Amino acid sequence: VNTPHGRHLLMVSLLEQLSSNVWSDKCGGKLSIYLPESLRSLEQPPPPPGACLLDNIVVEGRVVHRKEVLDKLDGLVPQGLNDEATMFSWFNQTHRDSVNSIAEWVLEQESFRSSYSLLVTIKDGMINECFAELVNIVIAGREDTGFVTPSIESYMPEEFFSPESLADAYGTEADDEPGGRAGRQWSQRGWQQQQNRWQQNQWQATQNRPQATRRPVVPRATRRPAGNVWTRTSLQEAEWYFREDPVANSHHAEWHRSGGNPFNRWGEYFYYMHGQMLARYEGERLSLGLGLSTPFGPSQWNQRIWDTYDPNLGGRYLVRPAARINSGRMQQMQGSVRSQALRYSQGGYRGGVDRMISRLGMQMETDIHNTGHSEISSLSAGGRGVMGSSLAAMRDPIFYRWHGFIDGLFSEYKDRLAAYTEEDLGFPGVSVSASVEPTQGESNTFYTYREMASVSLDMDHSGAGNINVQYNRMNHRPFTWNIVVDSNRPARTPAIVRVFMIPSNGGRGRATIHMDHFYMNLNPGENRITRGELEAPHLSKSRWSLSQLQSNLMNGQVGRGQFSWGGCGWPRHLNVPRGTEGGMAWTVMVMVSQVLPSDIPRIGAWEAQRNVAWSYCGVRQGVVPDSRPLGFPADRNFGSASNLARGRSNWAVVPVRIVHGTS
Known about the structure:
Elements: H1 4-13, E1 33-34, E2 52-53, E3 57-59, E4 62-64, H2 66-76, H3 93-107, H4 112-122, H5 128-141, H6 152-155, H7 163-170, H8 188-199, H9 240-243, H10 246-259, H11 266-287, H12 298-301, H13 328-345, E5 349-350, E6 353-354, H14 357-377, H15 397-414, H16 422-425, E7 430-438, E8 445-457, E9 467-476, E10 479-487, E11 493-503, E12 513-522, E13 525-532, H17 546-554, H18 560-563, E14 584-594, H19 604-608, H20 614-617, H21 641-645, E15 651-661
Parallel strand pairs: 1-2, 8-15
Antiparallel strand pairs: 3-4, 5-6, 7-10, 8-9, 10-13, 11-12, 11-14, 14-15
Helix pairs in contact: 1-17, 3-5, 11-14, 11-15, 13-14, 13-15, 14-15
């Protein structure tokens, strides 16, 4: 506990073997944790030689005992949340308030030693998922540890993978009970069968089909015999590789953990990050010829939802059947939100800043958004639908239809704001050109492909070593942005470069993807920038598994910059939509914009935040570097790229292709 790295190792190791006793061996047998006499349970055995014996909890010189700790915990944990059959949800305000109150209690302790002993003591009184959220929140809130956290899928694999695949990985029988090991491993054969169907064009595009009112013909996913792997082969589920990607789902969960304890511009980030996830999903649907999704709006709430969804995650999450939701509260809320949006839009945009979007977003998330998630989740037996959990919600196709409605409410607000001016969109004396360069292939072409990837899981309970589970995912060849900016201005000038991609056909403004966003100083004359894809501020900076992070901390292999990495961020392998085998036409828009005068003093924040995915996940310390609206200027309805650029020299509009094939 004498170094930040040592304290950080102790903290993240609490995430190992969440279902086991805290004194179980951790870090490959190098760490075992025991509570002192004042805090130990009756079941804790005597500490062996070399064990880590924790300190007493001391408050103003007084030793706090176990009963006092658990009595206070009982007052902070709502009824049911200490039962493993209960599903913790960031969409539940009671759950959110409870875990944040416990985190404040832990963080207010007089020393790290007392704080850590308190965390270990209260583990027995919390369900695993809630305790894992608590540990991560405490790590983010401490100033004497690092910020980097392990990927959720590595220590809670049952939230991301099917029982069959984890049974294979762990060498055990499939466990379908809530809280049991579960996982998914998708076969190359299953993926290829689906690819063949796509390529043979054996379906018709479903754009504009009224999904909520017509019963779709959806072949049921085939569950293969035990010991084999399976995949989804229904044509209507062709985008499953996006929805069920474990890393993308982990990002969504990490975002809601951060949003559970509000930060600067939280409401705006709720709007923007979910809007970008939705835009990326629509890009995948267009790539597959499925057309845009139909938002799940008020006109459909009183109708039966005909499609069903089976997450195949064992007993933890149950099937969403065809049913009708209870929409009473939602109907009331949507009227209130629309009235608020109308009121906020009056003078909401001034001086380059959207001054009301965050307030609207906060109200939207905690009211109608969370209620919709809960009501849809309640369609499953016992309310155990994936829509009730930030860990698994984006697996269900209805997640995107629900967020299509939410995003539409934001669009109503945005389109009522004062129009962007020439001062907002132009940059006198500046011109730009750009290209995309893949590591292999033609310029201005992205290349996507499928591949087998593996996730390193928590060590098994026998301590035999690391375990990997494989899954099939979409990926693309690495690429760089080559940007040339000519400045006729007489002096060095601060500027912000914004990069977007939009499908050339069929997107209707709903698949605009923000690809990069960075600060630069323009020198008079020519300025050449070669920017790597991974430098983008929305991509995850850290994807270490728990065992990798523990090993690196023990071996001194976590550098100063890595120690400050944030876990939240979009996965790099899903940064580019699938495209098509023949090459799908997209358009890249590069805008060089002026820095707001009020942002000149905060230019240093661009460097300070480079280790976190701040453009999707916000900032915990310091300020957001750019005060402009998130997604500016594509946050308004603009029609086409040419409509937005309007021939301005500080804009580059570049036709590109996305070709799907082999690596």
